[in-house]
Amino acid sequence: MKRTILAIISAVTGIAFASGQDNDKAQDPEAATLRTQSIDEVLQSISINNPELQSLVKDTEAAQLQLKTENMLEDPTVEYSSFYSPNVTGQSGSELVVSQGFDFPTIYAAKHRQNKFSSESLNSGLEAERRRILLDAKTLCLDIIMYRQLGELLGLQADIAEDMLGLYEKRYSTGDATALELNKIKMEMMNVATKVADNNAALATAGNSLSAMNGNAGISFDADFYPLVEEISDPQAAIEEYMSGSASILAAESAASAAQKQVSLNRQDWIPKFEIGYRRNTAIREAENGFIVGGSIPIFSNHRKVRMAKAQSASAVNQLAMIKSQSLAQARSFISDIRETKAALEAYDEPLMRETLDLLRQAVEGGQISVIEYFVEATNIYSSLSDCITLQNRWQKLMAQLYINRL
């Protein structure tokens, strides 16, 4: 029940945290560990090393290449025929046909414009995913800061309880304290030890998750304080920034434009496809050369394509309207939650609570109050300080969500 117990618990969980962050570095000696107190540096590293983001980049690249291949000329065809006759020894004749099919030139221009919007939609979708991943990483960083602040508070609580244990052991030996008071202090130390272990475990888990997001490259985020964040002076401007910079909205807008271009493209599908080529026929004594000009009339293949494209375009427009509506609701919700959380934070007076803890400690040491009375009051103060730390973390997360477009 001494300081040694808490030290061992803290050391073991601390080792687990450090081991989780450095385990992959040990497996790969060349991997350099990033040690920083800057969230921006962490996010920059994750934007480079995150496996999910790397996969999304390649998927987007493949999809854009697929768009380009869909707007290219058809492959040329080459046919060769050999003819035989019972009256002729060997080959009596042959035929060579080389042809190239293509769409009307306006079709390629329309597809190019549609592919441009589709490519922009893919890029915006990738940007939305990138911001989501970085927001998750920033949330982990904010949680790590919170766990360290809670750890500092628990450490203070443990130190005070240990000092009081030493004091009351002396009083108990002289008959100035009861066994109940002594046991109350020991139970308090057990509770604090459990909270320390849980907090350190959560800290280790957050650190391991952050390293995993960094592609298992070593990363050690050592900050124990939050970065400065500007207050919201104009809520409407903040909402407009959230809406205008939303990558999800931009992706939906480009997708709607691409769907509208598909309607225009399908309306041109009545234009026949063309084919030109070269033809050579040979006989026993002579050869003939000529050209091939032909086409295919889309009588059946264009059936109801325009109606289908219009339905898809209407769906894309409705999807855009839904995303805009949801984004606006989210922005307003963030603003409201930020206001409420800020108001709750301002109700806490942390210096006053810490001063009260010191006064309570002096009172119990001076015999003015019993140790049981001390713990009743101190427990409420520790709970309030913990709530204050949690609220600060919530406020930081809400601000990060509101300004996600800045990531």
Automatic annotation (TrEMBL):
Gene Ontology terms for molecular function: efflux transmembrane transporter activity
Signal peptide: 1-18
Listed InterPro entries: MdtP/NodT-like (IPR010131)
Gene3D superfamilies assigned: Outer membrane efflux proteins (OEP)
Native organism: Candidatus Cryptobacteroides faecipullorum
Name of the protein in its database record: TolC family protein
Domain of life: Bacteria
Keywords: Signal
Protein's UniProt keywords contain Signal: yes
